[in-house]
Design goal:
It is a single chain. By secondary structure, the protein is an alpha+beta fold. Helices cover 32% and strands 30% of the residues. It is built from six helices and 13 strands. It has helices at residues 13-23, 40-44, 57-76, 112-118, 132-139, 180-189, and strands spanning 2-5, 29-33, 49-52, 80-84, 87-91, 96-102, 105-110, 126-128, 144-148, 151-154, 158-161, 165-168, 176-177. The strands form four sheets. It has a five-stranded antiparallel sheet with strand order 8-7-6-10-9. Strands 1-2-3 form a three-stranded parallel sheet, with helices on one face. A three-stranded antiparallel sheet has the order 11-12-13, with no helix packed on it. The radius of gyration is 18 Å and the shape is globular.
């Protein structure tokens, strides 16, 4: 959990946060500021909250409590064991962009940060032996949706979405479809 001012001498808070996110995209980041309003640049680093220094102590306490609860949720998130190149990886939900059915197993598509963290190149296949529906039952409580019988996705990486198609960060070349039977639930969950 990091509380950080936005206005700082030298490297500002937004750039500092960008450098931190290159190393760890799962930590909880809270910007604390007296003068600066959130900018589009601020949201690139996915801050959990903005605390204004002129807020009441009660408001600040509420935001701090929310951040602590979020930090606990991340720490309690399940770990999954995956296989790749004859070895095993331990993955957290935030490492995963999406999971798709693949032959009799599932193929896991990781975030760029997770690939760097585990020393994997873009072509390395990562698989989990569990069925897609079973993985969804575990991951749905951690920000995942089930838009199609062939894949589940992490809403954290959702970039654009219409009623029947969406794009994921890092996989912009793929147009993911939302099946009609899953559209109502998926579109409700994404909000």
């Amino acid at each position: 959990l990091i509380f950080m001012d936005i206005q700082m001498e030298g490297m500002d808070g937004e750039e500092t946060a960008r450098q931190i996110r290159k190393r760890d995209d799962s930590l909880v980041l809270v910007f604390v500021t007296g003068k600066v309003d959130p900018s589009p640049r601020s949201f690139i680093v996915q801050p959990y909250r903005f605390i204004k220094k002129n807020m009441t102590d009660e408001e600040k306490d509420g935001y701090i409590q929310d951040a602590l609860i979020r930090m606990e949720e991340i720490a309690k998130a399940p770990s999954m064991t995956a296989k790749c190149d004859g070895g095993k990886l331990v993955l957290k939900p935030d490492d995963i962009v999406y999971i798709e059915k693949y032959k009799k197993t599932t193929l896991v598509h990781l975030s760029p940060l997770a690939r760097r963290k585990h020393g994997l190149d873009a072509d390395t296949e990562v698989r989990i032996a569990d069925k897609l529906g079973d993985l969804y039952e575990i991951l749905r409580h951690y920000g995942f949706g089930y838009p199609h019988d062939s894949y589940i996705i992490n809403f954290k990486y959702l970039m654009r979405c219409t009623y029947n198609e969406f794009k994921l960060e890092g996989y912009e070349e793929i147009g993911f479809k939302i099946t009609r039977s899953k559209a109502l639930e998926f579109n409700r969950l994404k909000t």
